Structure to design on (195 residues):
């Protein structure tokens, strides 16, 4: 059934608001993001944005999820392009780290650079991000290894997502080392008998 005009209009406002919010975040960080500026930039009232996102934090959370979906597609492609499970996970983690490093918006959103108030989206309020990454990666695991218990695949994928996010927030080691460490943890979790 086709969506109503109201639903299509609301979706368009949402997309435009997220695009404008991204521009403001990259240009001015968290402090540069004001709902009034977003509303003015897309020609709607501030109340319309409050109705859609509830708050500035809600707008930022929606933006994190939108951008996360875009790079999760790259992550899935990296996983699917490799037969060896360890190399697949190493490539997927490295793809994530490289994508964040070169995308100024993802860098602001996922590392909090210039946006300290966004840090909860990666810590205490990170559930939507972790769930999205976990579910995408678990589907890969179950396609590649259909004999796996779905709960085990989900747990392994969540471990990888949490460790990757942890590195983004506090990078202690070079990306190649981190990718290898996370891949090793996932593979050993899935197959405790491997060396």
């Amino acid at each position: 059934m086709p969506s109503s005009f109201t639903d299509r209009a609301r979706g368009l406002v949402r997309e435009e608001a997220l695009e404008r919010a991204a521009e403001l975040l990259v240009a001015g960080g968290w402090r540069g993001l004001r709902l009034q500026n977003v509303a003015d930039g897309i020609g709607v009232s501030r109340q319309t944005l409050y109705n859609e996102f509830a708050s500035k934090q809600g707008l930022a959370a929606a933006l994190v999820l939108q951008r996360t979906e875009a790079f999760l597609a790259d992550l899935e492609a990296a996983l699917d392009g490799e037969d060896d499970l360890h190399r697949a996970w190493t490539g997927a983690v490295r793809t994530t780290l490289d994508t964040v490093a070169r995308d100024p918006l993802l860098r602001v959103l996922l590392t909090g650079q210039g946006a300290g108030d966004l840090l909860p989206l990666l810590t205490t309020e990170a559930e939507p991000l972790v769930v999205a990454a976990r579910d995408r990666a678990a589907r890969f695991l179950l396609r590649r290894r259909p004999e796996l218990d779905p709960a085990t695949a989900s747990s392994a994928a969540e471990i990888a997502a949490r460790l990757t996010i942890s590195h983004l927030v506090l990078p202690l080691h070079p990306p190649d080392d981190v990718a290898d460490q996370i891949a090793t943890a996932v593979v050993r979790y899935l197959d405790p008998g491997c060396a």
In short: Residues 56-80 form the longest helix (25 residues). The CA atoms of residues 120 and 126 lie 7 Å apart.
